[in-house]
Design brief:
Blueprint lengths: L5 E7 L2 E9 L5 E9 L24 E2 L9 E2 L6 E2 L6 E6 L12 E7 L25 E5 L4 H5 L11 H16 L5 E11 L1 H10 L2 H4 L4 E5 L13 H11 L8 H10 L3 H6 L7 H5 L23 H4 L9 E7 L4 H7 L3 H7 L18 H13 L10 H26 L4 E7 L7 H5 L33 H19 L26 E7 L4 E5 L2 H14 L10
Parallel strand pairs: 2-4, 8-9, 8-10, 10-11, 11-12, 12-13, 13-14
Antiparallel strand pairs: 1-2, 2-3, 3-7, 5-6, 7-9, 14-15
Length: about 550
């Protein structure tokens, strides 16, 4: 411990906890409380169970000066196996702890759910540091939750209802709602935000009545509940397959499978077999996320009892304000997986071109026609090759993100017409576009999946970037953090003009245009409202769907 470290104690419902006072370079001070347990450790018989309330801390006060373990995972960057089953911890950052009875206004709370394909990541500050957004006088909350097998294995036949990771998030949200006032946060003004798999989770909470009572607004970045990778395919098969891979007899009963998986002790072996349960269909369509959210039988704590296309019709969603966003080249994140098999898109396995949701058999006489239409639209007369990747990235972006992103917003407009909706496309390319730069894609067009994140959070995992005042990057950091704060505080990202905000972000509007018309903000060196959201690409997929989609397949109903 540095001799300059100033510790501070706060008391919450479960006891006292000790955090640290921090100072940024511009003399801005804030307080951090890391590694706060928000539920009982989900170990032993609690594996796969919904999280259990923690009534009292084990220590009093509890040391919350450092982060604790994330869920078991292969770290997405280091590729090292790490983590623990004891992972239900959250972090709180607040700009003030003044104990003044005359204070009548509390800070808006921003509750972050990290991404990572439902199988990796954490809320730790090496990737999601508060340094940028905390200056906007908000309380920031980041969390760890169960991932992979432990967070999303579902086997209702054996009493494992699934979605434990989503239920962890809901428990953390409940904890914050009950305790955040002690950190000068407003429990009645909580905004959920998340990216990729985290955004899907945020969207599911928007659609879940038992979660909605804890928050008022949501920012959904590069993922929605309607995307084909947002819902698990055949979860019971995966649970059975995993038990067999780990040595259980094929004839085991449902109860035996559940008990076996609950008590199995070689965690690393479980993890190593996780991807071996993927179906050939999933592998071919690059859905490399075996354990993700799943439909549940109805119960008091069920999170997902019907797909998005049904739950969006719930009239209780009307009072939510939501920002939906994406990046201009989302598909870059998929590209790395495709490099070893680019030639398959040129002839040896044409079936890869057909989107997951179409549900059309390769033996169907129309199958080759579909492939030719898609390939011609994106690649014209060219093959997929290393010196012609931009149109292929557009294709990957559209089938994995953009088309269903657009459709999600259109369904919100149709079924929730009084909701307050905004949309953005992040196109800015600068020094803080971490994923594009890490992947070595600087020569390719646009902003990659997750490239907007480090204009909101400061990351120190790969570089401690010195953000110079009045640079392009500094302007985007200031603008995004101000808009995110404004939305959290007012439900409007640009309520008034200021030294940072010199434009008005138009809401999505009421039109349900089939050809790609949609009000959205383009975030680039110049920030401006646009109306034509990849119109030719949206129209192409609308036409393809009209001609070829098998309407009664599982993923056409999302």
């Amino acid at each position: 411990m540095s001799h300059e470290e100033v510790r501070i104690e706060v008391t919450v419902k479960q006891g006292a906890l000790v955090g640290v006072k921090n100072q940024l370079d511009n003399n801005f001070t804030y307080y951090s409380f890391k590694g706060i347990p928000y539920a009982k450790p989900p170990v032993g018989n609690l594996r796969f169970k919904p999280p259990q309330s923690l009534e009292k801390f084990n220590d009093n006060p509890i040391d919350c000066t450092k982060e604790r373990s994330p869920s078991f995972q292969t770290n997405m960057f280091t590729k090292e196996f790490e983590g623990s089953e004891d992972c239900l911890y959250l972090n709180i950052y607040t700009p003030s702890l003044e104990n003044n009875s005359n204070i009548k206004t509390f800070y808006p709370v921003m509750f972050w759910i990290h991404g990572g394909g439902f199988s990796s990541g954490s809320g730790n500050s090496d990737l999601y540091g508060p340094d940028y957004i905390i200056k906007e006088n908000i309380v920031l909350v980041t969390i760890n939750y169960r991932l992979g097998i432990f967070g999303f294995l579902s086997f209702p036949e054996g009493g494992i209802s699934g979605n434990a990771g989503l239920k962890d998030q809901q428990m953390a949200l409940k904890w914050i709602h009950e305790n955040i006032k002690n950190f000068n946060g407003d429990p009645n003004n909580i905004t959920l935000f998340g990216e990729s798999a985290g955004a899907v989770c945020v969207h599911y909470h928007c659609l879940t009545e038992t979660s909605r009572k804890y928050f008022r607004k949501a920012i959904i970045q590069s993922g929605t509940a309607k995307m084909h990778w947002a819902l698990q395919e055949d979860p019971s098969y995966k649970a059975r397959k995993l038990s067999e891979l780990l040595g259980l007899k094929k004839s085991a009963t449902d109860t035996e499978i559940s008990e076996f998986l609950t008590s199995y002790s070689d965690i690393k072996k479980m993890h190593q077999n996780m991807y071996n349960v993927l179906s050939q269909r999933e592998k071919k369509r690059d859905v490399m996320m075996p354990f993700r959210p799943s439909l549940e039988p109805y119960s008091a704590d069920a999170m997902i009892i019907c797909p998005f296309s049904n739950s969006i019709k719930d009239q209780n969603l009307q009072n939510l304000s939501i920002i939906f966003g994406c990046t201009s080249s989302e598909g870059m994140v998929i590209l790395e997986n495709e490099f070893p098999r680019l030639e398959k898109f040129n002839g040896s396995d044409y079936a890869r071109w057909v989107p997951y949701k179409f549900g059309i058999s390769e033996s169907d006489s129309r199958f080759s026609k579909i492939i030719n239409e898609i390939k011609t639209f994106y690649m014209k007369d060219s093959e997929v090759k290393m010196d012609n990747l931009n149109p292929f990235i557009n294709y990957l972006s559209d089938i994995h993100f953009i088309y269903e992103f657009y459709n999600t917003i259109q369904e919100h407009i149709k079924y929730q017409p009084s909701s307050n909706l905004y949309a953005y496309k992040f196109s800015f390319v600068g020094e803080l576009n971490l994923y594009k730069n890490l992947l070595g894609y600087k020569h390719l067009d646009g902003a990659a999946h997750a490239d907007e994140l480090f204009y909101i959070f400061k990351q120190t995992l790969f570089m401690n970037y010195d953000l110079k005042p009045e640079t392009r990057e500094d302007r985007i950091v200031q603008t995004m953090c101000r808009m995110w704060m404004n939305f959290a505080k007012y439900g409007n990202p640009t309520p008034s003009m200021s030294d940072v905000i010199d434009f008005k972000w138009d809401p999505v509007g009421e039109k349900n245009n089939e050809n790609g018309e949609l009000n959205f903000l383009e975030i680039n060196d110049r920030l401006e409202n646009q109306k034509y959201f990849w119109g030719d690409r949206i129209k192409f997929w609308k036409d393809m769907e009209s001609s070829y989609l098998v309407r009664d397949n599982t993923f056409s109903k999302l």
